[in-house]
Amino acid sequence: MDAGRTGAYLAALRKARGMTQQEAAEQLGVSNKTVSKWENGAGLPDITVLPALAELYGVTADDILAGETLRGRPESGTGEARRRLLLVRLRTRFDICFAGAVALAVLAAFQVAYVSLAAWPVSVGLLWIGYVLAAHPARYGDVALDTGTWENLYRKLLTASAVQWWALLRLVPLGRLELDFAEMRYYDTMDAWKPLIFAVGLAVLCAVLERALRRRAGAEASLLWVPERLRPTLRRGDRFLRRTRQIWLAWLVWAVVLAGLWFLADGQVDRALSPWIAQYGEDLVRSGFPESWTILRGRLEADVGHWIRLRQGVLLAGAVSGAGVLIWTLMRWKKSRRPLAEKGET
């Protein structure tokens, strides 16, 4: 072991990290003179300090004793170069797991016999592994992710989770199994409810991941994509992003619930019409039968009429609730605006 070579190596590592001898000494729990002695080659670090010294500079104890980086490690570069390299590695790990998770979830959604039942849990496992590999080392290690990276990661989490949620709904039977002789297919009696359940689950996913993202990356982070050139403008308004986030989340919940209810009602109408269409033909059923077919018209109205009225009710409820959300949005904007006197205007 060459004390002079080790000292020069330690000095280079410290300077690459932008630290002074005093800062390094404080982190290691030794005196400034001790750090200076190591770097001048007047002595070698004690074996009890060596692990902490290696962790501080991001190298191994063998590297310090040899006075050089024995393997091609990113830690030997500058602090910024090392950070960029580690970020690329972390994001690459997550992206590989993300791509695999989405691909397996799509495969599971096709309901391939035996394959789908195995593909869905593997998809969820891959997504979780990707999150742990990418987020936890970055969060709890010596590399901090910026807001943009956190947003990118959580948007991919939302995408993969939404696909997995839909695949799970397709795999799980709801209600009892029925046979449609007209179309020669099997279906579950509560299949029409699945779009609504998916919409509600998607809204919950958005709310949970939005809150988790804000806790990770700060109050300005959002799942909503905002172009970089607009971000400085948005930051000028006090609490603008927070108000915007709450508003678009409210509109998202309204939209997904309304869409789910519409698909439910529309699916029930089609299901009620299918045996009539199979027997009399679509053109005749859609036209409502001739006036002289009084009995059949009454039966068709009894079977389908309440579902058609339900579908119309969904549209009416959507219009009323949409107006309510719009009024709430305008009132929230007005309430959140600061008085002119507080802005220094006259």
UniProtKB/TrEMBL annotation:
InterPro entries: Cro/C1-type_HTH, Lambda_DNA-bd_dom_sf. PROSITE patterns: HTH_CROC1 (PS50943). It holds the Pfam family HTH_3. The keyword Transmembrane helix applies. The chain crosses the membrane at residues 92-114, 192-209, 247-265, 313-331. GO terms for molecular function: DNA binding. Keywords: DNA-binding, Membrane, Transmembrane, Transmembrane helix. Residues 10-64 form the HTH cro/C1-type domain. SMART domains: HTH_XRE. The keyword Transcription does not apply. Signal peptide: none annotated. This is Helix-turn-helix domain-containing protein.
